[in-house]
Design goal:
Layout (H helix, E strand, L loop, with lengths): L1 E6 L18 E6 L9 E5 L7 E3 L20 E8 L5 E2 L1 H5 L8 E5 L2 H4 L11 E2 L1 H9 L4 E4 L13 H8 L3 E4 L9 E9 L7 E12 L7
Parallel strand pairs: 5-7, 6-8, 7-9, 9-10
Antiparallel strand pairs: 1-12, 2-3, 4-10, 4-12, 5-11, 11-12
Bound molecules: zinc ion.
Amino acid sequence: MNKLYHDITRVISPSMAVWPGDQNVVFSETKRIADGDVCNLTVLKLSVHTGTHIDAPKHFIDGGLTMERLPLECFLGKAAVYDLRGRERITRGDLEKLDIEANGIVIFKTDNSEKLSTEEFRTDYVHLTLDAAAYLAGIPIRTVGIDGLSIECYKSDGNPVHHALLGAGVVIIEGLDLKDVAAGEYQITALPLKLQGGNGSPARVVLMEERPDPLPLG
Ligand SMILES: [Zn+2]
C-alpha cells in the first residue's frame, strides 16, 4: 500500500484572519543571526483558537475538560470525511443520511474550504445547526471537524451548538482546509499542544490515505 498524506492545516502567519476581537498573530524575532546573534529565535503571541485548532470542553464549559487531559483517541485514528458542499448550513437532515458511526471522528467538507481564505474573516461561513449538533452529540461521536473558523453560526445567541457538542464531550476541530481532500476514509493525526488548563490549541492536522500500489508495467 502507498501512503499519501494530506496536510489540512492552515498556515499560521501574522497576516491570517482571526475571530473578530481575538488576538492577532504576532511573531517577534528576539535573536537574529543577521544581527550577530548565535541563532534565530522567535516569540509567538496568538490566541489558542488561531487557524486550524481544537476546542476543548473548557472553551464553553467552566470546569470542562482541558487540553492536557483530553484523551489521545480524540485526535488519532480512523476519520470519515463527508462532502457536504452546496449548503449554507448543515442540518440534522443532512447528517441522518450519512450513517455516522458511534465513537468516530467525522470531518465535514463544506463550501468554506473553497470560499474562505486564510487571510480574510467572513461572517457567512457554513456552520452546523443546533439540531445537527444535538444529533452528533446523541450518537455520540468522539470528534467533529469543519473547515470554518467556528462550527457555529456567527453571533449565535448563547452558543448552543458549542454547548451541545462540548457538553457531550465531543471535541471540535475548526479552521480546517479541505480543498484538496475528497470524501472517504482516512487515518487522522490532529495533535494539539499539551497546554495546562487550555481551552483550545492550534493543531497540525494531517489525513493519511492508503492507496493500492500501482501495478508493475509490462
Ligand atoms: Zn475554537
